[in-house]
Design a protein that fits this description.
The chain is an alpha+beta fold and about 350 residues long. The chain contains 14 helices and 9 strands. Pfam families: HHH, HhH-GPD, NUDIX_4.
């Protein structure tokens, strides 16, 4: 029995029941693939269901506002995916009449769609013979064949794509691509893989050479940056609060947050008072308290945010203040959403 046949046999008895497995609708497949990038199925599934309910077809997503899309995406992270999702839906409707392209090559023209997503849609929806290579597939192939070429090197990406093509099942590409990804997620997991009852264990190079924990190899290219965030939770005399929208190309683009004071190191009360006086004209009658004595460390892929929340009560009235009852209407980063939940009973 070949490598691909063993994978398919395993899949027939072990696959999870997931909503996108029972459809060939490219909109549904595309939605699931974008949502599950860098996201576990358990975390992404509720979002997939919410999006399907709110936007049952690509036209509904295209006609939604960006704020609606970001609000539904809130908490899933990597918000550029949500913005690309929205832009692609508009493109499919405007340039393709609401029908997704049906070839790998054409799918690559869509915003936010790269090799992996195009391969997945083309093979699952249209039976095109394109191998998928995601993190799970890299791991299965690297371990089984004992490949130590870094998966995030130029040569590694090219090598694994070709290897995936050589071993793919050409008679049932739709199920095979889903099978090898599922195999990597469940059987050949990153930690504690189930090697003892693996159908590939007799010929797995990594298992034979005791390399399972060392493969796949990945070059650590990115240095994590530390940033120090001070959020000013400002309440006026009418219990209105200040929110502002993030602009530019940085993290959380177009999401909303409390006024932010970023410092080079951990801040103190004196710095906060000076900033409030200089930038908001708040006087000595302003009450300032620190919500969290220990900084909250919010870890993103390339940066760690060391965050303090300062509660600021002023006797002024904000012309641009937002009623507390309307806070939940705004798409915010999960860091802000968690703070809102925590403070509702105490301050709101």
């Amino acid at each position: 029995m070949s490598f691909s046949e063993k994978i398919l046999l395993w899949y027939s008895g072990n696959k999870r029941s997931l909503p996108w497995r029972s459809t060939r609708d490219p909109y549904k497949i595309w939605l699931s693939e974008i949502m599950l990038q860098q996201t576990r199925v358990a975390q992404g599934l509720p979002y997939y269901l919410k999006f399907n309910e709110a936007f049952p077809a690509v036209e509904h997503l295209a006609n939604a506002s960006e704020e609606q899309v970001l609000k539904l995406w809130q908490g899933l992270g990597y918000y550029s995916r949500a913005r690309n999702l929205h832009a692609t839906a508009k493109m499919v409707v405007e340039a393709y009449g609401g029908h997704f392209p049906n070839t790998y090559k054409e799918l690559l023209n869509l915003k936010g769609v790269g090799d992996y997503t195009a391969s997945a849609i083309a093979s699952i929806c249209f039976d095109e013979l394109q191998p998928v290579v995601d993190g799970n597939v890299y791991r299965v192939l690297a371990r089984y064949f004992g490949v130590d070429t870094p998966i995030n090197s130029t040569s590694g990406v090219k090598y694994f794509k070709q290897l995936a093509r050589e071993v793919m099942n050409t008679e049932n590409i739709r199920d095979y691509n889903q099978a090898i990804m599922e195999f990597g997620a469940i059987q050949c997991a990153p930690k504690n893989p189930k090697c003892s009852n693996c159908p590939l264990n007799e010929s797995c190079v990594a298992l034979q050479k005791n390399l399972v924990d060392l493969l796949p190899v990945k070059i650590n290219k990115t240095k994590v940056k530390k940033r120090y965030f001070n959020y000013l939770v400002m309440l006026d005399t009418e219990n209105q609060i200040k929110l502002q929208q993030r602009r530019g190309k940085g993290i959380w683009q177009n999401l909303w947050e409390f006024p932010l004071f970023e410092t080079k190191t951990e801040s103190n009360m004196s710095e906060i008072k000076h900033h409030l006086t200089s930038n908001f004209g708040l006087g000595s009658s302003t009450e300032i308290s620190l919500h969290n004595e220990d900084q909250i460390v919010h870890k993103l892929s390339h940066q760690h945010l060391y965050t303090k929340f300062w509660i600021v009560k002023t006797d002024a009235r904000f012309d641009d203040g937002i009623a507390l009852r309307k806070l939940d209407e705004f798409p915010v980063p999960v860091l802000i959403a968690d703070l809102i939940k925590t403070l509702k009973n105490s301050y709101f």
